[in-house]
Amino acid sequence: MAVISGNDEAAVLHGPRDLRIEKIDRMEVGDGQVRVEVHGVSLCGSDLHYYADGRNGSNSLTQPTVLGHEGFGVVTEVGAGVSQDRIGQRVAIEPAVPNGTSPLSLSGHYNVCPSVVCFGSPPNHGLLRQSVVLAAEFAHPLPDSIDDGVAALIEPLAVAAWAAARVGSVLGKRIAITGAGPIGLLVLQTVIALGASETTITDVAPARLEVAAALGATATLRSGEDALPEGAFDIAFDCSGHPGAIADAARSLGPAGILALVGVPGRAVAEFPIGSVQRWELDIRGCFRYGPSAFADAIALAGSARVDLAALVTSSYPLAESAAALEAALTDPTQLKIVIDTTSRGPQ
């Protein structure tokens, strides 16, 4: 893709805790693409890892990279083959884009296709900048009922919606969730909206459990103090990635239960109650990002107010204070989702 020399302002990570506000080149809009003026970006755990450590899992920062992949904005330009009617649309940005022609993509599994390029995953520039260019079908129109202050959270809600889709119907089911971070709280709200009969969520942080209770959890349990009852649930979602929590989630399932692995594991290999999986015919389902319909499902949930995204937004910062926002997310345990207003240049 060609570049146009321009003056987009961006938050560029040069190394651990070395984030600079700089000008970067703008990209040309190609066939089938749109330019989105980015209005807001919410911070994710992967952003924190890259900022603090220069790496996230096996991927490392090898060159200066713009962070951020949870965002929304307004379409300001369209390429050939895209309707002019799209100009002015508010859109949620689906940041992981495949080439679209691989067998996995064509079969509906584009989220696990190796061809995927994800914004904000080094060396690919992310969304903490003034504008971004992407395939038109990955810019999802937003209804007026979704406020600008929460629109960036459609991306993490799509993670929750995809996890729910991966396990099938939750109607009338007893649900356990390990991990009450933002994704766990969004999974909680999603399964309640889809008709779960009972929801129990665990976490080490009392403040997060208080939020979960306010959002409608049937029961909250303090990890390390209160154990999940064994064999009590139909479906368990691990949203922590912690090996012990994953094992607890598996043990909490009754016969023919389903374990959904949503959180990114802290290590690739961990102890696991494989005997329970075999004996009780438990199904284990990996959940990676989001597949077909996940963004549409997330937009429908938020647009109809069946999920409260505002309950997760704890702070807002201007683009110029992106480093301070990342530091707050790393050091303040009361933070859930911090949103960076990319249209604001100075202190708020």
Q: What does this 3D model show about the protein?
A:
The protein has 348 residues and is of the alpha/beta class. Helices cover 24% and strands 31% of the residues. The strands form five sheets. Strands 3, 7, 8, 11, 12, 19 and 20 form a seven-stranded mixed sheet that branches. A six-stranded parallel sheet has the order 15-14-13-16-17-18, sandwiched between helices. Strands 2-1-6 form a three-stranded antiparallel sheet, covered by helices on one side. Strand 4 (55-56) and strand 5 form a beta hairpin. Helix 3 (154-167) crosses helix 4 (182-193).
What's the short story on this structure?
With 348 residues, this protein is an alpha/beta fold. The protein is built from nine helices and 20 strands.
**Helix proportion of residues, in percent?**
10-25%
Supply the CATH class of the largest domain. Answer: Alpha Beta
What would CATH call the homologous superfamily of the largest domain?
Answer: Medium-chain alcohol dehydrogenases, catalytic domain
Order of helices and strands: EEEHEEEEEEHEEEHEHEHEEHEHEHEHE
Q: DSSP helix count?
A: 9
Average pLDDT figure: 94
* Beta-strand percentage range: 25-35%
Radius of gyration: 20 Å
Span between N and C termini? 36 Å
Named CATH topology of the largest domain: Quinone Oxidoreductase, Chain A, domain 1
Low-confidence parts? 1-5
The largest sheet, given as strand count, sense and whether it forms a barrel, is:
7 strands, mixed
CATH architectural group of the largest domain:
Alpha-Beta Complex
Give the overall form.
Answer: globular
| SS-derived structural category | alpha/beta
Give the total of domains: 2
